[in-house]
Design a protein that fits this description.
CATH architecture of the largest domain in chain A: 2-Layer Sandwich
Number of strands of chain B: 0
Structural class of chain B: mainly alpha
Shape of chain B: elongated
Largest interface: A-B, 54 and 40 residues
Number of helices of chain B: 10
Strand order of the largest sheet of chain A: 9-1-11-10
Helix content of chain B: 40-55%
Order of helices and strands of chain B: HHHHHHHHHH
Radius of gyration of chain A: 30 Å
Distance between the termini of chain B: 106 Å
Oligomer: heterodimer
Radius of gyration of chain B: 32 Å
Order of helices and strands of chain A: HHEHEEHEHEEHEEHHEHEE
Largest sheet of chain A: 4 strands, mixed
Chain lengths: 284, 211
């Protein structure tokens, strides 16, 4: 405060300032300091304790026992999916089953099968079976003598643990269930396609019938009733495995423990729950 | 009343209050009731997703009645889903449900069996067993024309040609040629709903159709 500004208050003002420096000021600032400390501590403590309580409560409510009332085995079910690319024969049965089960329009896919063909000169050809049955033999021919190695890689939603797609949804239409399944609320979705852009794996699309975002749900309506996703059910070679990764006795947990497991684009840190066996560096 | 300045402040406060009320009204109208129940999404959506209609026939649907099937299936075709060759069998299941409801003791069930048996087994087999780049070497694959030359079947033009040597339920090579005929006929029986003498029926209609 300036002593020249206010004549009426000049005396006291200047008196204060002319005090031997410190005592009164010091005690005032100490009081303020303590009061601030109390306030900040209380506020901080409330923030750190009360808010997490609400969050935990919300989490706890979400642990369901399965939609048909079946009790889960005393632990939180976290679903996982394993693709063993060494077994896939590219028959496309999964793609057709998925289309039938989930009413996916023609030309769009919730799951599809890619083929990686490595040539002796080091180049790699990637093509995809986008018609279903027999489509690989309809693609431009490959001379088998030039091929070093080749294999199929089935693709589907990775059901990431840290999801880029849910983060960008402006209306809360994309969400993750407690079991880790990433779903779309088709009634809430406005079809803005931000999530389609955000997905680093290209697994989301705007459904041409419903004009909403659409994606693999791991057949949520089947797994909630104890069945396997359609693609897993029809796979004739056991390429696709699905189950509870929190249950050490499940088929998938054993397979995950016994094999060398990889995920797609691990450098993005999305922590996918769709895992792979037999990937190469070229598979993205 | 108020001074002019105070009035302005009140007007401002009123306007802000209106905006606030408007905001919360619109918010409550546009946010669905169950939003936030389990997280930042509509809680009711979980229920909708879980109760969606199941369309594809599961293995369980088949084995519920045909429990011997899993014993007939050979090791190599153990995992092949019934619907791959037999279609989804919806009509079959519906008619069987009806038949069971009206069942009388001592009378055999009559289920609809049309469309259950494939008419072009060659396409179905080649779907997985055609020689294709990308398939693992250990997976049995054929080049169809060469395979026909090598094995010289009775009627190579029939769409059911594969069944002249292989049993679809158990195509293990040790099961092939001579024993195959009887087994093959056994399999054809349910489709034909026929007398035991209708043994060659499995191949005949298909062969006739091809010629």
């Amino acid at each position: 405060m300036s002593c020249s500004g206010n004549k009426g208050a000049k005396d006291t003002c200047c008196e204060t300032q002319n005090q031997p420096t410190g005592l009164l000021d010091a005690s005032e600032s100490r009081r303020e300091f303590l009061w601030d400390a109390v306030k900040n501590f209380t506020f901080g403590a409330l923030t750190l304790t009360v808010i997490p309580m609400f969050i935990e409560k919300a989490d706890a409510e979400e642990v369901h026992t399965g939609k048909d009332g079946k009790e889960t085995k005393g632990h939180t079910v976290i679903f996982g999916y394993l693709v063993d690319t060494t077994k896939c024969i590219g028959c496309g049965g999964c793609m057709l089953a998925c289309k039938k089960e989930n009413d996916v329009p023609d030309g769009q896919f919730r799951t599809w099968v890619e083929r990686y063909v490595y040539y002796a000169d080091g180049s790699v050809r990637v093509d995809a079976n986008l018609k279903g049955k027999f489509a690989f033999s309809e693609l431009p021919p490959i001379n088998p003598k030039e091929v070093l190695k080749s294999f199929f890689v089935p693709k589907l939603c990775n059901h990431c643990t840290d999801t880029p797609c849910i983060q960008v949804c402006p209306v809360g239409a994309s969400y993750k269930t407690k079991e880790g399944v990433v779903l779309v609320d088709y009634e809430q979705c406005i079809g803005c396609a931000y999530c389609v852009q955000a997905c680093p794996f290209g697994t989301r699309f705007i459904n041409t019938k419903t004009q909403t975002a659409d994606k693999c749900t791991w057949c949520y309506h089947r797994i909630q009733h104890g069945e396997k996703p359609a693609c897993v059910d029809v796979c004739p070679t056991g390429t696709r495995t699905f189950g509870d990764i929190n249950d050490p006795e499940s088929e998938i947990s054993k397979a995950l423990a016994e094999n060398r497991i990889d995920v797609l684009k691990s450098y993005l840190g999305t922590r996918p729950k769709t895992r792979y066996i037999g990937l190469t560096a070229e598979v993205v | 009343m108020f001074s002019r300045d105070t009035l302005h402040l009140w007007i401002l406060a009123g306007a802000l209050a209106l905006v606030g009320v408007g905001f919360f009204t619109v918010r409550s109208l546009t946010i669905p009731p169950s939003f936030g129940q389990f997280g930042h999404f509509r809680g009711a959506a979980l229920e909708t997703a879980a109760n969606k209609e199941r369309k594809l026939t599961t293995r369980g649907d088949c084995t519920a009645c045909h429990d011997t099937l899993k014993h007939e299936m050979g090791k190599s075709h153990e995992r092949v889903h019934c619907i791959e060759c037999h279609g989804d069998g919806k009509a079959h299941m519906t008619s069987c449900k009806d038949a069971k409801a009206a069942a009388k003791p001592g009378v055999a069930l009559t289920c609809d069996k049309t469309d259950l048996m494939p008419t072009n087994i060659k396409d179905i087999c080649l779907h997985c067993h055609q020689d294709t780049i990308g398939r693992a070497k250990k997976h049995p694959q054929i080049k169809f024309d060469e395979h026909m030359k090598d094995n010289d079947p009775k009627d190579p033009k029939s769409p059911m040609v594969c069944m002249q040597c292989h049993i679809p339920h158990d195509p293990d090579p040790s099961n092939e040629p001579d024993g195959a005929k009887e087994d093959k006929d056994d399999e054809a029986k349910p489709a034909e709903a026929a007398t035991p003498t209708a043994a060659p029926a499995a191949a005949t209609p298909a062969v006739g159709g091809a010629e």
